Amino acid sequence: RIDVESEYGKGSCFTITLYLARQDTGRAPEQKAEAIEGQDFRGMRILLVEDNALNQQIAEEMLTMLGVTVELAEDGQKAVDAVLTHPPLYYDLVFMDIQMPLLNGYQAAERIRKSGKERIAELPIIAMTADAFTEDIRQAKLAGMNDHLAKPITIGQLKHTLSHWAGKKERNSRYLQAGDGQPL
Predict the structure, then answer these.
(1) Beta strands 125-129 and 147-150, pairing class
(2) What is the pLDDT of residue 175?
(3) Residue 32, exposed/middle/buried by CB under 10 A (0-12, 13-18, 19+)?
(4) Taking all residues of the chain, what is their mean pLDDT, rounded to a whole number?
(5) Which residue has the higher pLDDT, 172 or 147?
(6) Using an 8 Å Cβ cutoff, are 108 and 80 in contact?
(7) How many CA atoms lie within 13 A of 119 on its CB side?
(8) What pTM does this model have?
(9) Would you give the distance in Å from CA 110 to the centre of its chain?
(10) Phi and psi of 172, rounded to 5°?
(11) SS3 breakdown of the chain: % helix, strand, coil, rounded to 5?
(12) Rounded Cα distance, 26 and 34, in Å
């Protein structure tokens, strides 16, 4: 419901009342937060691809606080080179800015995915950008990215993302050891 009170020359007051249904996730929010809070990200190696020095410093500091080893690339071409010159699964995850020189994030992700490198489909590439419209998220997925984080990023977003993708990697590792060699 939207109510408006307006008086000429004095201004307007808008009151918006929303009735929302509670969604049961099967687990209390505190339990979810505690599970992420207690998770240990030490040993994870992340490629942070960011051309803005301040954004790079902030993201690197937050990731380091979480125990992650961070390697940096200042543009899309350096990101492609870093991924392709290391052994398969050297990086646990790539955080990829979109607007960068030489190759933008979309182009870099496409080149990484089309490289033919062994197990490259298992490398999570996460868009990290201020472009957060539905079309931007769709374009990131079409370029081969797995997820999208809107800037400005928070430590909570990073924890959630690391927890989600670390869990997928662990499940894939168990599946590959016991299954037919195809990732989930």
Answers:
(1) parallel
(2) 44
(3) middle
(4) 84
(5) 147
(6) yes
(7) 18
(8) 0.73
(9) 16
(10) -65, -40
(11) 40, 20, 40
(12) 15
On whether the CB atoms of residues 39 and 163 are closer than 8 A, the answer is: yes
How many residues make up the chain in this entry?
184
Q: What is the pLDDT of residues 73-110, one digit of tens each?
A: 999 999 999 999 999 999 999 999 999 988 999 999 99
Select the more confidently predicted residue: 181 or 162.
162
| Residue 4 CB partners (closer than 8 Å, separation 6+) | 12, 13, 14, 15
Q: How far is CA 135 from the centre of its chain?
A: 17
R_g over Cα of the chain: 20
pLDDT in tens, 53-73: 999 999 999 999 999 999 999
Q: Angle at which helices 105-113 and 134-142 pack, to 10 degrees?
A: 30
Q: Are 76 and 105 in contact (CB under 8 A)?
A: yes
Q: 142 near 107, Cβ under 8 Å?
A: no
User: Cα separations (Å) of 50 from 55, 104, 112, 113, 144?
Assistant: 7, 10, 16, 19, 18
User: What are the tokens at 113?
Assistant: 């995915």
| Tokens of residue 87, six digits | 């052994």
> Among 102, 103, 89, 76, which residue's Cα sits nearest to residue 172?
89
Q: Tell which residue, 147, 159, 166, has the closest CA to residue 63.
A: 159
Token pair 């809070």 is at which residue?
A: 37
